[in-house]
Amino acid sequence: MIRYLLPKVGNYYKANLHSHSILSDGRKTPEEMKAVYKAHGYSVLAITDHEYMVQHNDLTEDDFLMLNGYEAYIKETNDPLYKRFMKTVHLNLIAKDPTVNKHIMVDPNYMKYALVHNNGTVNNLPRVGEPCVRQYTVGDVNRYIRLANENGYYVVYNHPCWSREVPSVITQYQGMLGIEVYNHGVLREGYSGDDARVYDEFLRAGRRMFAFANDDNHNKFPDDSPITDSFGGFNMIKAEKLDYPTIIAAIMRGDLYCSNGPLIDDLWLDDHTVHLTCPDAREAFLVTEGRTNSNGRRGSIKAAKGENLSHITFDLLPDDGYFRIEIIDHEGYKAFTRAYFLEDIFG
Ligand SMILES: [Zn+2]
Ligand SMILES: [Zn+2]
Q1: pTM over 0.85
Q2: d(Cα 287, Cα 323) in Å, to the nearest integer?
Q3: Sign of the torsion angle spanned by Cα atoms 122, 126, 128, 129
């Protein structure tokens, strides 16, 4: 029996779902960001300024969709001397409906950009509840996520390597739709940007979460610079058409993969064999809940020198728990499927 893990019908829409404009600490206007992402083949952009929810529905066109959202955070400390070492959580909130505009758990200590644009006060910002003081505790983070979900957002855990949080804490966070397995912006911090290992921490704690790759661009360098933070991490959303509700529904179903380079065509199961087709890969990896090399199965496949993988298969074992696939192209760039739990597929 064939089961399509990415929908058989529909189009792929390229999306950057985490970015910053001049409304916070980015360098481009929302109009400039839309124009340059559209010119680079993207169909979807979410401008997620720091602690400042601004709708950009007026920039949406028939062939380009703006999703609304913002990036929220809770920090261990405000002590500037400790800033480099503090643990912090950054959450991407994406509005599931273009009318959503409320700020969650408004804390003026976090909202300097919103204050700049609102005469020094948060009193007139659309918000849920009264202003409060956020604490870096599992309880406050979970309260934030719950209120965001209840008020029309989905929530993604951003750039784990940059945030310096520890797995024993973050796996207590509940209710997030996904995690950034790749954040292009943290390359300037000396990381490769690849956080898939933290994704497995969540999955092995039983969290059903999807994988996202985003730019987190602030555009402090020219677009054609080798160190631009644009056009690195992207999501390919498969959907029947390009409009707000259809794209959000596809994201909420997990009808997407993410990448910083290679593309994936199709992904399906034929009984307990997973198939992945792609234009070009050098290596493929199967990641499961337990160790993958088992019963003679190998967890990776590599193309012979000068050759190319275009149809990859792995056999699943009944106790795999979940599985996900990564492929690497000949230049070393990587694509990630989301995780699929066997229990959800086979019962
Ligand atoms: Zn961040
Ligand atoms: Zn960011």
Answers
A1: yes
A2: 5
A3: positive
Average pLDDT value for residue range 261-280: 97
Residue 230 tokens read as 């644009």
| pLDDT score recorded for residue 190 | 80
Cα distance between residue 326 and residue 257, in whole Å: 10
Place of tokens 């994201």: 251
Q: Is 222 helix (H, G, I), strand (E, B) or coil?
A: coil
Residue type, position 345, single letter: I
In the predicted model, what is the mean pLDDT of residues 87-105? 98
Q: Domains of the chain by range and CATH?
A: 10-260 (3.20.20.140), 262-347 (2.60.40)
Calculate how far, in angstroms, residue 19's C-alpha sits from the geometric centre of ligand 2: 6
Q: Which of 97, 61, 92, 58 is nearest to 248 (CA)?
A: 97
| Mean pLDDT confidence for 171-192 | 92
Which one of the ligands is nearest to 229 CA? 2
Cβ 177 vs Cβ 91: under 8 Å: no
Question: Which ligand is nearest the CA of 158, by number?
Answer: 1
